[in-house]
Amino acid sequence: MNKRIYLDNAATTRMHEEVLQAMLPFMRDNYANPSAIYGFAGEAKKAVGTAREQAASLIGAKPTEIYFTAGGTESDNWAIRAVAEAYADKGRHIITSKIEHHAVLHTCEYLEKQGYEVTYLDVDAEGKVSPEALERAIRPDTILISLMAANNEIGTLQPLAEIGKIAREKKILFHTDAVQAYGHVPLDVEEMHIDLLSASGHKLNGPKGVGILYTRENLRLRPLLHGGAQERGRRAGTLNVPGIVGFGKAAALAAETMEERRKKETALRDHLIDRVLAEIPYTRLNGHREDRLSNNAHFCFRFIEGESLLILLDQRGICASSGSACTSGALDPSHVLLAIGLPHEIAHGSLRITLSEETTVEELDYVVEELKKIVERLRAMSPLYEDYVKSGGND
User: Fold this and answer.
1) I want to staple 73 with a disulfide (CB 3.0 to 4.6 A). Which of 19, 35, 103, 385 is the partner?
2) Which residues contact 241 (CB under 8 A, 6 or more apart)?
């Protein structure tokens, strides 16, 4: 197979043609600043309003509760830091989990240096947070719970409705990093009692460099960026009109196709998982078997290094990853895999495959056949594997 097989959709997605066409007029002809008062700016302002409605509709929010940002990282930083600053008089305790994206973890670490206390919840072997453990961790001074909707590495979905119910009953704000889930799984901020939600355009076939932060109406949210009066005075800077229009279009398309897309991706995902587990020995599936993102399959292959695996896959035209694109190049194994209890030597042999609705069964079958050859080749060079075989398969 000579073509490229792209299986790293958790890192970024191909922009839909309809999204690109929606953006182009605001790059060339309708280039006015939407904050201007003359008539020429009116079309840009109207387009931003439409995009705000589209972004809100996907999660059952009001358009006035949507703020456009530069992406998921900014949205996570803004949500956590703004709540910490605004509610410091009530308390300085935050609850998150050990498997969050680094945009959340590093923000929490920053706040710890400012005198805040953070509880990092454990997860089970499938990557789920226990609602009971969450409830036990709540203190009188807890002001924020920040837990992701879906893990960006192993794909496990968290029980958002249960978490939100606990937060609402305890009168604690609930933020979710929904970067991987937005547009891919049904989300309703009212039903799930979500107060703040982060999302990013390029994870749902939209443009890079644009995201949203949903904040429940009447929240005391402080600006992260200071300057002009854009975004109702809460996020200064000239609006990225083409990006915002693209985000809105991508959100609208995601809403239209979600059910059909999830069904197709789930069938493809399960076909891949079944073949890999049946045909490649000493392989582990990471994350919950069913309660996971429809396009995510994450494996660990014993006795090999994930980096070598990725290089050899790339030589065969297959694009995949070992985990988060934000930590590529890191020598340490994934903090997510360590948190679910994997030892270093197994965590190092990880592979994340994230497909799309455009992926075909033929492509996945090709990937499995090449994987079998690559894993066999790498294990043949491993003294650990040789010793394991000689011992009769006894650890």
Assistant:
1) 103
2) 26, 30, 34, 44, 47, 48
- Residues 148-192 have pLDDT tens digits of 999 999 999 999 999 999 999 999 999 999 999 999 999 999 999
3-state secondary structure of 94: strand
Tokens coding 242: 């083409």
The C-alpha angle with vertex 189 and arms to 187 and 195, in degrees rounded to 5, equals: 135
Contacts of 341 (CB under 8 A, 6+ apart): 125
**DSSP labels, 326-382:** GGTT-SSPPHHHHHTT--HHHHTTEEEEE--TT--HHHHHHHHHHHHHHHHHHHHT-
Distance between CA atoms of 325 and 51, rounded to whole angstroms? 27
User: pLDDT tens, 74-132?
Assistant: 999 999 999 999 999 999 999 999 999 999 999 999 999 999 999 999 999 999 999 99
Nearest C-alpha neighbor of 93 from the set 65, 131, 127, 121: 121
- Phi then psi for 138, rounded to 5 degrees? -70, 135
The residue annotated as part of the active site, out of 108, 300, 319, 326, is 326
> Token match 């498997």: residue?
99
In this prediction the pTM is 0.95
Dihedral Cα 252, 325, 370, 261, nearest 10 deg:
-10
Reduced to 3 states (helix: H, G, I; strand: E, B; else coil), residue 294 is coil
Q: Which helix (H) or strand (E) holds 284?
A: strand 283-286
Query: What is the layout of strands, in order, in the sheet containing 93-97?
Result: 66-69, 211-215, 196-200, 173-177, 142-146, 93-97, 117-121
Tokens of 299: 């494996």
How many of the other CB atoms lie within 10 Å of CB of 314? 12
The reply to whether 300 belongs to the active site is: no
